[in-house]
Design brief:
The complex is a heterodimer of chains A (295) and B (333).
Chain A: H1 3-16, H2 18-47, E1 51-52, E2 59-60, H3 66-73, H4 75-109, H5 112-123, H6 130-141, H7 146-154, H8 165-189, H9 193-201, H10 206-234, H11 238-242, H12 251-261, H13 265-288
Antiparallel strand pairs in A: 1-2
Helix pairs in contact in A: 3-4, 4-8, 4-10, 8-10, 9-10, 10-13, 12-13
Chain B: E1 2-9, E2 12-20, E3 27-31, H1 38-46, E4 53-58, E5 61-62, E6 73-76, H2 88-98, H3 103-116, H4 132-144, E7 150-154, H5 162-179, E8 182-187, H6 190-196, E9 199-204, E10 207-212, H7 214-219, H8 224-229, E11 234-238, E12 241-245, E13 251-253, E14 261-273, E15 277-284, E16 289-295, E17 311-317, E18 322-323, H9 329-332
Parallel strand pairs in B: 3-8, 3-9, 6-7, 7-8
Antiparallel strand pairs in B: 1-2, 1-4, 4-5, 9-10, 11-12, 12-18, 13-17, 14-15, 14-17, 15-16
Helix pairs in contact in B: 2-3, 2-4, 3-4
Classes of the chains: A mainly alpha (295), B alpha+beta (333).
């Protein structure tokens, strides 16, 4: 049989069976996803139920809840988890409040030419290294930095926010803001102008139009953005290290300590499990709030 | 109602010094090709745009600088502009909720409005679950539930197919008669304008070419533009100057021109069978082209009476050729 005849027969067989085409197209990424991603997650979760022999440093392959009970009972871990969670919530809310007017202005107010320019400017910080941006903030906030300089020029008492949780909150909100603006901008853009005119025509002022028409329609965009800001904050350990000073450890820092300094991989896995659980609960809540109905 | 209203977008004059009076309870249509300024004028009346010059008043009250919701007008949008996250009833109730109308009154008015447009059974659906014609009805109910003095309709039937459009034309007229408010209707469809309007204005380049009753505008077009835009027409030269001759007034025969009629000989250049009528294009011997429309009165294929190439005589009543006035201002420019 000629090569051409075989090719045609394979092509025809695929044409008759659309599901086969789907399987063949998806299987390489699916295989990658299963082996690299899901399998390593399962390994990590299983590891969380083992312990480490404190003398030899070897992993003891014996099922136990001791890692989890340690996390739940030792107050240091409780406060680390609470700090991480509250920070993720605070950063998310801050970014929503900052992004809404930004995105509305971009999508509905400026002309097309300005919109492209402003979107470019908005995304530009993403080209810069994360570390460069964090160090820039150290320069702004630290005692000999830009902010105290301005404060002393204006005669305001120095605020000393470097190396505090407030500094972390500011830096996180700055870092993740584009991830919130872009999906909300997309959601605003999908709202036809005629809906705003109709609302005004029916007697609504700006606030009612925002509350009754715009906000419900951009909610999926807000949830999409909040998934970014929430999970990025939840998993971060560099900003707490560089900006947060003492008493600012995140779950990520605790994982880092126990995995690399303590050599206790099972305990690190158990801590990572906490992050995943928080994120899963967050997604479920968003789902119950009806945020994915428009998808 | 409107005095010297103008609106420019950049260098482009969308509406140029329009004067217009619309009577209470009238079905008034603004007809014109796209870009003729009719939609802009509607948006000026609605309050979505502010005129550069001139004034707009409603029942003797100057509303030129008032926002849309302080004018006593409501708009039915071309794309319906229904709120996708509200149900049909929620959409209709929107204006009443905004104005804080009490719940019981709100519910009864919403019910009445939905009954008016025959959408009661769809009250709990979302707009996405409705067909184009149904959305159109909801948009109408959402506007009239507020009992505006004037209802503005921006090509409301533009997105519907022919059959549905004709149904909705009848519906709109019924509703307008029933609630007795002024309708200002924008369309580029001349048939729609002729069918529905009490009066209509033909727009061109931001100005009004002619205002009048549909019969007057059709039978006695003021300018060549109106003659060409409202229906099809032949423009012929008579001893009194140029005149408009509607195709259905031209008769084709094989004999000579009768004494009391005007006409000329020629041959059939093209035949188009349109179902109800057949349209002939006749090349007259003097070089002019004339269009004639003959009704297909019998079922025996009478439309085949003339075929391309046949020698025919086209004739018409002298009185049917309506003389055009002097050229319109826009033509002089």
């Amino acid at each position: 049989m000629s090569d051409r005849g075989l090719r045609q027969r394979v092509g025809a067989a695929l044409w008759r069976r659309p599901w086969l085409r789907g399987v063949l197209t998806l299987s390489p990424p699916l295989l990658w996803f299963l082996v690299i991603y899901l399998a390593s997650l399962v390994v990590m979760l299983v590891t969380a139920f083992f312990t480490v022999n404190s003398l030899t440093g070897n992993v003891v392959y014996q099922w136990t809840w001791s890692n989890f009970s340690q996390i739940l009972t030792q107050s240091v871990y409780g406060s680390i988890i609470l700090r991480t969670l509250l920070m993720a919530i605070a950063v998310t809310i801050t970014d929503i409040l900052l992004a809404l007017p930004f995105a509305f202005f971009l999508a509905k107010v400026v002309s097309r030419r300005w919109r492209q320019l402003l979107l470019g400017l908005l995304l530009m910080p993403l080209w810069a290294s994360y570390l460069a941006k964090v160090y820039a903030w150290i320069n702004i906030l630290s005692n000999k930095g830009v902010l105290p300089g301005i404060e002393s020029k204006l005669g305001i008492p120095p605020t000393h926010i470097a190396y505090t949780n407030i500094a972390m909150w500011i830096v996180f909100s700055y870092l993740w803001l584009p991830f919130m603006i872009v999906p909300i901008y997309g959601a605003f853009e999908r709202v036809p102008d005629s809906l705003l005119e109709a609302s005004s025509d029916l007697g609504a002022g700006s606030w009612i139009t925002f509350r009754w028409v715009l906000l419900p329609m951009v909610l999926p965009g807000i949830v999409a953005g909040s998934i970014f800001t929430f999970s990025l904050t939840l998993g971060d350990f560099i900003t707490p290290l560089l900006i947060g000073g003492s008493n600012s450890d995140f779950i990520g820092n605790a994982i880092y300590d126990s995995a690399l300094n303590g050599g206790n991989l099972p305990f690190a896995a158990a801590l990572a499990f906490v992050s995943i659980a928080i994120m899963a609960i967050y997604l479920l809540l968003a789902r119950f709030a009806g945020a994915f109905e428009a998808l | 109602m409107l005095r010297g209203v103008s609106k420019h977008f950049g260098d482009h004059a969308a509406v140029r010094e329009v004067d217009l009076d619309i009577a209470r309870g009238e079905f008034f249509t603004m007809l014109g090709p796209s870009g003729s300024g009719k939609t802009t004028l509607l948006r000026l009346i609605a309050g979505f745009e502010v005129p550069d010059a001139g004034s707009i008043s409603l029942r003797g009250v100057d509303v030129t600088n008032r926002p849309p919701y302080q004018r006593g007008v409501n708009t039915v949008f071309q794309d319906y502009a229904l709120f996708p996250h509200f149900t049909v009833a929620g959409n209709v109730a929107y204006g009443l909720r905004v104005r804080k109308v009490a719940r019981s009154e709100r519910e009864s008015r919403v019910r009445a409005a939905l009954e008016m447009v025959r959408m009661t059974e769809f009250a709990d659906r979302k707009p996405a679950q409705l067909s184009g014609g149904q959305r159109q009805r909801v948009a109408l109910a959402r506007a009239i539930v507020n009992e505006p003095e004037v209802l503005l309709l921006d090509e409301p039937l533009g997105a519907l197919d022919l059959k549905l459009r004709q149904e909705m034309q009848v519906e709109l007229k019924r509703i307008q008669r029933q609630i007795g408010i002024t309708f200002i209707y924008v369309t580029h469809d001349q048939e729609e304008a002729l069918t529905m309007s009490d009066r209509l204005a033909v727009f061109r380049d931001g100005q009004i070419e002619q205002i009048g009753h549909p019969v007057d505008v059709y039978e006695q077009p003021a300018t060549e533009f109106v003659a060409g835009f409202v229906g099809t027409s032949n423009v012929i030269t008579t001893q009194h100057g140029r005149a408009v001759l509607r195709p259905e007034k031209v008769e084709l025969s094989t004999g000579s021109v009768a004494a009391d009629r005007e006409g000329a000989a020629g041959h059939v250049a093209d035949v188009a069978y349109l179902g109800m009528v057949t349209r002939y294009t006749v090349q007259l011997d003097d070089g002019r082209l004339i269009t004639a429309v003959q009704q297909n009165r019998s079922t025996d294929g009478e439309h085949g009476r003339f075929a391309p190439g046949d020698v025919v005589t086209a004739s018409w009543n002298v009185a049917d050729a309506f003389p055009l006035k002097t050229m319109s201002a826009t033509e002089i420019q």
